[in-house]
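User: Please predict the structure of the protein below. I'd like the answer in structure-token form so I can feed it into my own downstream comparison script.

Assistant: Understood. Taking the following sequence of 250 residues as input:
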Amino acid sequence: MPSSLPRLTFIAGLRRQNVIKDYLLPLGLDTNHGFAKVAVENSEVAKRRTRLEQRLARLKQWAQSAGKREAQASRRRERLRTTYNARSKELYRELTAYQFTLEEQNLPEYVFRQKLKERKAEIDAELEPLRIKEWQAYDQCNAEFRKQERYCKEQREVLRALEDLEEQERSATWKRLLPFFQLPGTITHSAQMVQVELRPFNDRALNRDLAILCERVNQASPHLPDGRRLSFTISSACCILAAQKKAKIP
């Protein structure tokens, strides 16, 4: 019988730990500062998350705006290119007709070439503004596309940072809750109830959180799968705080 005592104690500890784990999160007790569900307004983690979320929202807005500007620049470039091509064809047809007219005049070769060159220069001067506008639209389209790519890349970086922050929070929460999972105590049960009596800490803040845990579990009145009610109490072996007294089951 004495040799089985350590094994029974170990099994009881596992059962106690599982009971706490099963009913901790559904009761809203998964905070990074203990069991008290109170918002930490000045938490550095909360501030960092807020900054990242705001940055992500801005990046999404900027990416959408860049996409709209890219589409507008692309449509403008297409219109300008169509206008340029149409006007270019029209002017060069006129140049061909002008060349035939000069040939009919039997002008000296150098005069013929000079007049044809002057007319072509006039055509190029008329087409140059259209060509410049088209390339400006093309450059803007490419610039907005590069902006959109950069914003999307930064969004992925912010999302990774948020995931890392969430992982850090989970790790910090587990470390904070670990003492409660390892807290010794006793479990008694009857046909209608399973009662977990926990030994208090040697720390007033942890005892305050423990008392709130017991109070919330008892207020929720949870039931185990077999229908028995689960209740938490704190052992009265040590000094009990006012909040701890409220957490005990009469």
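That's the full token string. The two ends are 34 Å apart (CA to CA).
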